[in-house]
Amino acid sequence: MVARLLVLFAVVAGFMATDALAAARCEKLIATGSADYPPFLWRDPANPRVLMGADADLLKQIGQELGLKIEILYSGSRAQAQEDVRTGRADLLIAARLTLAQLVQMDYINPPIRQTLTHVWMHPQRPFPFAGWDDLLGRSAQSSSHTALSAEFDSFARQNLAVERSPTLEAAFEQLQQGKVEFVLAERYPGQAVAEQKGISSELTLTVPAVSGAGLYLALSHNSACNDAQLRGQLTRKMTELVGSGVPETLLQRNVQLWQSQQVPAVGTRKN
Q1: Do 192 and 76 lie in a common domain?
Q2: Which is it for strands 106-122 and 70-72: parallel, antiparallel or unpaired?
């Protein structure tokens, strides 16, 4: 009997030690994402090491309500942010696209932060009839590396369109302005944010319907020391609660205004 109790004590002590070690390693979570993605994420002008925006505010609220310390930091390019999360240098990837490659590297938190819509943007002086995907056939196009596309449209584009990827949405719009491409694929809010920042809103036309819709998620690295069933459950429950109550949309509208206020010198004035 005593031997059994000692074995039981050793097992319990082992679990406690493991939990204590995990807690020690998980005093805080590091999150990152695409920095060139206003009004959802962009670098804080007062502290460029930190990311701000609607998605950052949502993650901060999740952390506060769960009692988690979360830092939202700039990693560099979108590819570098993904690599940092893949390797465990960062724990969380914000606004992650659902891909087979990342499914084996990260746990996706359901529901998605939002469903994003990608539109065709044209130059108002060079419009063409657009009602659906087939109207894009044979036309030159650009998109940025940040643009989210559904699996269906991505497959259609790869097989039927010549869409070149620019490092930034600003660069893609410049190609459109210069007449080097006929349209740009971009999400509504990031497109509007860049257009306002550069003072070129009058030189761009967003068309409807959207060509693509995709969910963007919070994803937790498989190599994060903090990744366990309890944390995943907490994040899932809180994300479900906040998305269901419309919090992401409220934060989006607030950050649209914040981004605009930071761009006041550029709004309505084209930069050379």
Answers
A1: no
A2: unpaired
